[in-house]
Amino acid sequence: MSASFPNDIEQRMISHMNTDHVDAMRDYCRHANIETSEIDPQMIHIDQHGFNLDVNGQNVRFDFKEKCTSPDEVRNALVALAETARADTTSSKE
């Protein structure tokens, strides 16, 4: 079975992230020690196992902890990753 979502669903998720959640994508990068202060990461692919960001011309892969079989599961995985990244950032400042 393919790990891809139908193209229209994938494109809606990508568009939503690139329009409304650049801050979360910066947090994902910061959590992975990838510098983004000068650029905005852009989501370029998402599937059931994770997603890819274009970070200043570099294709960076982020994997989900578990396979996501629906857009709702993808949303939950992205939120969880953002919460983890933000918690690590907060605790490193203390």
Tell me briefly what this model is.
This protein is of the alpha+beta class and 94 residues long. It has helices at 7-20, 22-31, 71-93; strands spanning 42-47, 50-55, 58-63. The mean pLDDT is 92.
Can you walk through the features of this model?
There is one protein chain. The chain has 94 residues and is of the alpha+beta class. It has one domain: PNP-oxidase-like (Split barrel-like), CATH 3.20.180.10. The chain is built from three helices and three strands; from the N terminus they run ααβββα. The chain has helices spanning 7-20, 22-31, 71-93, and strands at 42-47, 50-55, 58-63. Strands 1-2-3 form a three-stranded antiparallel beta sheet. Strand 1 and strand 2 (50-55) form a beta hairpin. The protein is globular, with a radius of gyration of 13 Å. The mean pLDDT is 92.
State the total count of DSSP E strands.
Answer: 3
Series of secondary-structure elements, N-terminal to C-terminal: HHEEEH
Main-sheet strand order equals: 1-2-3
What is the CATH H-level superfamily? PNP-oxidase-like
Main beta sheet, described?
3 strands, antiparallel
CATH architecture: Alpha-Beta Barrel
Mean pLDDT across every amino acid position: 92
| Helical residues, percent | 40-55%
Share of residues in strands: 15-25%
CATH topology category name: Split barrel-like
**Structural class by secondary-structure content:** alpha+beta
CATH class call: Alpha Beta
Total helical segments: 3
- How many domains? The number is 1
